[in-house]
Each structure stands twice: as structure tokens, then as C-alpha cells.
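Folding follows sequence. Below is one example:
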Amino acid sequence: MTTIALVGTLDTKAEDYAWLKGRLTELGVNVLAVDVGSFSTADFADVSSDEVIEAAGEDAAKLRERRDRGEMMAVMGRGAATIVQKLAEEGRIHGLLAVGGSGGSSVAAPAMQAVPVGFPKLLVSTMASGDVSPYVGETDTTLMYSVVDVAGINSISAMVLGNAAAAIAGMAKEFEARTKRAPVEHRPLVGLTMFGLTTPAADEARKTLSDLGYEVLVFHATGTGGRAMEKLIESELIVGVCDLTTTELADDLVGGVLSAGPDRLEMAGRTGTPQVVSLGALDMVNFGPKDSVPSEFEGRTFLVHNPTVTLMRTSPTEAEELGRRIGTKLAAAKGPTELFIPTKGLSGIDVEGGPFHDLEADTALFDAVKKSLDGSTVAVHEQDCAINDEGFGRAMAERLHELIRNQSGKKEN
């Protein structure tokens, strides 16, 4: 029977969760309550707070003795994520629902982010009207604003939570039914990264891959785009990656606004997913409006891309470090990995005569990445062209196809 996991702080929100459990039962679904309350003793919890703490590798008694709320919330989040992920993998739950304020939402978020894209997850939160990125991450979590505080059932909260219960019940029933149906045949999925200034290469790669029989998912390299792609790789939904535009790593290094975090460009390597990688748009770091650029960068080369985006040219020192980081990440990959270097330019503005053309910086990048790959199994293809020149995107796409086909052949044998 369809089962919903309720993740909540049952020491402070017991009334709300008891009401939700009753409403979900009326809607014809089972409920599995996971208690993430710091000092809970709720009698309707199926997974106790002690079990959640233990799942995070901590001692419940010692943790409570320290009475550190921040530590407690972090531990509960890790434990809930571990438990929910296991329940989902075992097919014991078909949806995830949590309600709460800032504390409850921060604990529920890791659990929401631990299950794959496509698994139903709904968070009713007092925080849903502001910056929701800490709660959503790279997942398809559905957020619902609670309107009033989650502090007991009243005429308003009953309507909001009633809608939430109906929504997650419907999503979970469909999810369970979908898992029982014969899988729908679709073309293999591949990921492709692009930026405005690498669009011609990305378009060429996308068309080539589509013609070769793939469904191409294009991710805009804006931080969230890179993280979303890596989440899908982790979820084993993508069979190969054409990581043409790795510019997010420049923002992570220098402090730009489009960082995807320090782990960008690692998930395909960890999972053994075939990948072809290039250095697209590593000539730039992204900031907001010109007057928002930190004063420490005064004197650097800038280009106002539009009123809300200011680009800064990466320096030779920064380019060298980017090359070292990329080479180190690729060398550690477990699966088929190859690097394509466009020796005459990394973007539409890093070409001869362009505002970001800097041969010294590009050479520092190329030399550092090749040095970091010395002794590895990663093949390096140096192309005598700029990234957006005709043929570059196609070459990457065709090589990715070969890597995927070769890996599939090995698995079949």
C-alpha cells in the first residue's frame, strides 16, 4: 500500500503531525513517522529520535547532554537523510512530507535531498516565501508556504495542511503505480553544460547527440545548473556527460556568484559515468551589477554583459589553479574520461581580438591541466580552434557516444 514518510520534530509539532497522520490515513495511504525532535517521546513515531541520532553515527544520550541546538539539528538532518534514503531504496515509502519552521525545515531538507529526482517530496514551511535554496538544493522538492506558523491546528493551517496531505498522497499513489508499470522506453539521457558564450558549441553538440539517438538535457552553468546535473548523475538517470562548460569552477575559486560548489565535476568520476570535458568559459568569473563587484578586484579586466551581470577575466594565476583542480578531479575518475582543449579560445569573447583574449592565462590553464593529468588514463584532445568554432562541439559529442557505446558493450559481456 502507498506509504508516506512523515519527517518531523514530534516534540514540538506533535499536534500538527498527529492531524496530518489522520488526514493521510483518511486519504487511503499508510504513514511512517520519522521523529527528528531533539527530546521527543511521541508514541506514534515509527522511527524514534534515538534511532535517527544513531543513524547519523552519534550517541543519543551524549548528544542531548551537550544541549547544542545547532549540533542537534545537523545530526538529526544527517540521520533522517540516511533513514529516508534507505526506506526509499527498499521501496517501503513512496512519498515524503514534512512541515515546520526554520529548524524543522533545515532538518527535513537533507532528507528531501537524499532521495532521487522523481520521488515525491513536499515541504510545508514558514520559510518558503524567502530564499529557498538551502531547502531545495538540486532536487525537485515541492515547497508550500504555511501562511501561519506551524503551531497547532486552526482554520487556516487545516486548509493548508489538508492541501499538503492531498498533494503528497496523490503524488505518492502515482509514484507507486509508476514503479509497478512496465518501464516506458525512452532514449538514453545525456547531460550537456552550456553558457551564453558557449552556445554555438553546445548547440552543435546537442544536435549531434540527438542525431545519435540520445535525449539531451541541457544545463545552464549558473551554479544551480551544474549541481542539478550532478544530482541526476548521482541518481543514475544520465548515461553520459558532455561537460563542455565548466565555468562554475572559476566562480568557486575566485568568489563569483555562479559557483556550483567545490565538488563540481566530481560526480561522473565517482559513479564511473562516461564523460567528455572541456574548459568552456573558464576565462570569466561572474558578478552581479558593476557596482556589486568587490573592491579587491579593482584594476582587473571587466565586461558588462548586461545590467545585472558583470564578467571579470580570470588571471594567469587563477587559470593555473583551475587547471590543477580540473586535472586532479579528472585523474581521479573511475569511468571513461577525456578532455578537449580548444587552444584558440574558451568562449565567444576569448578569441583573437576579443575583450577577454589572454594567451598567457589560457596557456597557464592548459599547461596546468595537462601536467595534473600526467600518468593518468585520461586522453587529452588539443583542438586547433576556438570552442565555438564549427566541429568542436561535434567532436566532443561523437567521442562521448563512443565512450558510452564501449562501456555498454563491456557491461553486456
Q: What stands out?
A: The radius of gyration is 24 Å. The mean pLDDT is 94. Residues 177 and 183 are 11 Å apart (CA to CA).
